Each structure stands twice: as C-alpha cells, then as structure tokens.
Amino acid sequence: MNTNIHDYIVKTEQKEWQPLIEKGIHYEGIFVKSLKFDPEENRSTTILLKFEPGASYPYHNHPAGEELFILEGSAHIADAHLEKGDYLYTPPTFKHSVTSENGCTILFIVPEEVEIL
C-alpha cells in the first residue's frame, strides 16, 4: 500500500469543471470534477457535481444506492427540496430525478453506475 498521503489528496480548486457526458449523452448545464476514480471499474465513485440554474438530470436508478451532500445552492430530488448543508442517503434501487432551479454544487458518492430509466 502506498503510504504517501499526498498521493490521495485532490486539490479541487486546481481541477477544471468538465461537462457531464455519460455513454455519449451530454447533460447540458451539469459539470463534474472527479475526486476518487476506480481503475478496476473505469469510473469515478466520488465526484463533485455542479448544476447551473435550471439544469436537470433525468429519472434514474441507483442499483447500489448513493450518498450526497449539498455544498452550495439547492436541488429537488424526488419530491424533496434539499438546501446547502443537507445530506441524503438513498438505499439500493432508489429511483429519482434531480433538478436545480437556482443552481447547486453537490458532493456525490455512488458505488455503482446509475441506470437512466
């Protein structure tokens, strides 16, 4: 195991926001910064998501659940309104969409790839 702590630090201010593109679909107004990448799965499992005002992510399933924390702004997830400082855990197979009327930044932990429905 690598014991150099500096190899595990992500300086998020030094990373550029990237457009969210999944399986060739560009989700307008949503941007991502990868924090933890799983090379075996070839995907990020911990990310920052930034929604511009009015952006939305379609109805989808979380096969292994998810965890998220609203860092800035607010979002509607399912029928709940989450604001800065709110935390949400959804259990496996939980389905919902996400919209942000005024924009938001979310810390997002997703153990398995989401399935768009």
TrEMBL record:
Q: What is the lineage of its organism?
A: Bacteria, Pseudomonadati, Bacteroidota, Flavobacteriia, Flavobacteriales
Chain ranges of the ChrR-like cupin domain: 7-107
What's the protein name?
A: Anti-sigma factor
Task: Please give the InterPro entries that the UniProt record associates with this protein.
Answer: ChrR-like_cupin_dom, RmlC-like_jellyroll, RmlC_Cupin_sf
Query: Source species, please?
Result: Chryseobacterium rhizosphaerae
